[in-house]
Amino acid sequence: MSEQIYSQEQASGAQAAHHTEGGHAHITGYGTYILVWLGLVALTAVTVTVAGIHLGSLTLITALVIAAVKTSLVGYHFMHIKYDNAITKIFILVCIVIFLTFWILTFSDLSFR
Amino acid sequence: MANEILAREPNYLEYQGKHKGIAGWLLTLDHKRIGLMYLMAIMVFFFVAMTLGVLMRLEMLTPGETIMKPQTYNSVFTLHGVIMVFLFIIPAIPAVFGNFFLPIQLGAKDVAFPRLNLFSWYLYILGAILAVASLFSGSGAADTGWTFYVPYSIRSAQNVTMTTMAAFVLGFSSIVTGLNFVVTIHRLRAPGMTWFRMPLFAWGLYATSWIQVLATPVIGITLALIMLERFLGIGVFDPALGGDPILYQHLFWIYSHPAVYIMILPAMGVVSEILPTFARKDIFGYKQIAISSLGIAFIGYLVWGHHMFVSGMSDASRIVFSLLTFLVAIPTGVKIFNWVATLYKASIKFSAPFYYVLAFIFIFSIGGLTGLVLGALATDIHVTDTYFVVAHFHYVMFGGMGIMFFATMHYWFPKMFGKMYSEKIAIIACTQIIIGFNMLYFPMFIMGYMGMPRRYYDYLPQFQGWHILSTVGSWILVTGIVFMFGNLLYALLKGPKAPDNPWGGTTLEWRIKGLPTLENFEEIPVVTGGPYVHDRPTYIMHPSKEIQHTNGDAKKAEKEGVSH
Fold first, then answer.
1. How far apart are the C-alpha atoms of B226 and B231, rounded to whole Å?
2. Is the Cβ pair B543, A1 closer than 8 Å?
3. Residue B281 and residue B348: Cα distance in Å, rounded?
């Protein structure tokens, strides 16, 4: 009896997987990719330019913010997180929150030393 | 009829699969056999590290050189720490008893990924071999302490790389086990076993496994950076190259503080198993205990900075971390009070495992409260890097996890091996362990308060009386431990057959007749109530025979089970 339940679960799991695979079949136009790429190049240019300006303690933050934006662009468009199902997005979000927590607490030291 | 089938089906020790003899163990995918393989390996390393500990205490018997040179002493305390932490304390309860009992308690046939489970055992062995090999290869074992602090770990001429590599591989093994347990708990619970019907041991393992999965990669990367620093001089940590040595301490403790909860949460889970069994009543505050495990795991992530109060960290940071540290006392207090409340007006059965749990509550409370002394900024500065820290650490880790490891062995021994040990000897050994333990470690609180620094091979004559007391305590403790294991070993070889449920336990493992078989259950049971209900059955062990007309529907079966 319980095996029946398992097989039902497995079946629904398989369906979910199939659905996700279907999700990956989205076709993104070259236009979007080129725009994202241009965005990344522009942000790189901003990083290099900003590095030349004396922003004091903001230098590091600025560089990291730009890098974070670039990472999200790559993840969202090139790595297809945009088309992933909700659970994957939640897990990515959880990891980001944990990482940010580590980061903020570490910087509570570095910024006030 | 069920008994006849059981009588024919061989138990997990007798089962002959594709491979026989030693290969039947080394290539097994059975979670119970893998658990026992972990047990054997872990016991070997526990005795190695214990011997190193005894030798250290012997060295401290008199000021100056007693039995070893200072350099040897540095290597001995490093290896004692590395082996105890990475090879015993972290894996002992999850890898041995978690592997053995988690699937059974959930009503599953095995863990979610049996091959991955075996793989994690091999990773453990590989890590262990590297740790032990570092003793005999290169220029001798690492002398940095188990914390591998930079810049010394970058410059030490000793074999630091191999020891860090060992910890790296062991971390990998830990991640794999954690991942396996998370998936097992999510996917393989028996029909009717809702989250709040899970035994609290499973809750403890669940919280632990998330820490293993999320925090261990940080130590992996950090130790890899140490190796890169040593070989390539990349300058992340080395101040001479513009690196930040305090960053190392941050990264190390981002893992290693949550790791102390990896060590203690499974032990707390077992406390919550043993107490209701011997109190012969339902546990008090089931949900609070379950949630507090997650609470400890969560807050445990945010408090690592309390290891670094004197490192040169900013004042703002020290205040934040000190405040957060005090929050851990809340979920821990929730657990302790609920355990004590479980005992209130209970008809307690005083058996060996129960004695060990009482020892745990007493010793762990001392360890926990002295932790607050260390968590408070002002007092911490006075006792940092003294024997006070060593005493606190041993009270929570050895007194917490170690004593509970002994309790767990005594609790589940009859179900693992089908033999019964002498309870009288077990209780005598327990008493001896409590006396030896307190005699060994309590003087360290006093010495630490008086200013005796940790990790020194020599000391001023004024400390000698305390050191002698402590060393004599180590002899009492070790003979108690040997006595205890001797009792279990004798039971294993010549002990009488254990009854199916010697303690009157209510969780699923105690519903199995005799030793578990390869797939644990003839049929996946249906769960109809909480795990610690004593007055009525909450599991239907043979749903197809006991409940008719349900057509495999768990909800219907459950309804029938309640009226059953």
1. 9
2. yes
3. 9
* Phi and psi torsions of B517, nearest 5°: -90, 180
Answer whether B320 sits within 8 Å of A113, measured CB to CB. no
DSSP for B348-394 reads ----HHHHHHHHHHHHHHHHHHHHHHHHSHHHHHHHTTBHHHHHHHH
Q: What is the pLDDT of residues B262-285, one digit of tens each?
A: 999 999 999 999 999 999 999 999
Task: Tell me which residue of B190, B185, B178, B184 sits closest to B203, measured CA to CA.
Answer: B185
CA atoms in the 13 A half-sphere facing the CB of B349: 15
The crossing angle, in degrees rounded to 10, of helices A86-110 and B245-279 is 120
- The pair of structure tokens assigned to B485 is 């294991």
Q: What is the pLDDT of residues B20-63, one digit of tens each?
A: 889 999 999 999 999 999 999 999 999 999 999 999 999 999 99
A40 lies in a domain?
A: yes
Q: Is the residue at A2 inside a domain?
A: no
Considering the domain boundaries, does residue A99 fall inside one?
A: no
A6, closest residue in chain B (CA to CA): B188
Question: What is the fold, at CATH topology level, of the domain defined by B2-563?
Answer: Cytochrome C Oxidase; Chain A (1.20.210)
CA distances from B327 to A103, B120, B299, B334, B335 (A): 20, 34, 7, 12, 14
Q: How many domains is chain A built from?
A: 1
Which two tokens mark B333?
Answer: 């207090």
The answer to whether the Cβ–Cβ distance between B315 and A112 falls below 8 Å is: yes
To the nearest whole Å, the CA of A105 is away from the closest chain B CA by 7
Distance of CA B314 to the CA centre of its chain: 33
Cα dihedral A97/A103/A108/A109 (nearest 10): 150
Extract the tokens encoding B517: 């078989």
Tokens 């400390």 belong to which residue?
B463
Nearest-Cα distance to chain A for B304, in Å, is 9
Q: Looking at the DSSP assignment, which residues form a beta bridge with residue B178?
A: none
- Tens of pLDDT, residues B300-324: 889 999 999 999 999 999 999 999 9
A66 falls within a domain: yes
Q: In the Cβ-directed half-sphere of B377, how many Cα atoms lie within 13 Å?
A: 15
A chain contacts of residue B557, beta-carbon cutoff 8 Å: 1
Q: What are the structural domain ranges in chain B?
A: 2-563
Question: Where in the sequence is the domain holding A67, given as residue range(s)?
Answer: 27-79
Answer yes or no: are the C-beta atoms of B372 and B329 closer than 8 Å: yes
Chain B residues contacting A via beta carbons under 8 Å: 187, 190-191, 214, 218, 246-247, 250, 254, 301-302, 304-305, 312-317, 320-321, 523-524, 526, 543-544, 550-552, 554, 557
B321, A110: Cβ pair inside 8 Å?
no
Distance between CA B185 and CA B113 in Å, rounded?
A: 12
CA-wise closest residue to B539 among B556, B552, B524, B518: B524
The closest CB to that of B254, out of A102, A110, A111, belongs to: A102
Residue B294 phi/psi, 5-degree rounding, is -65, -35
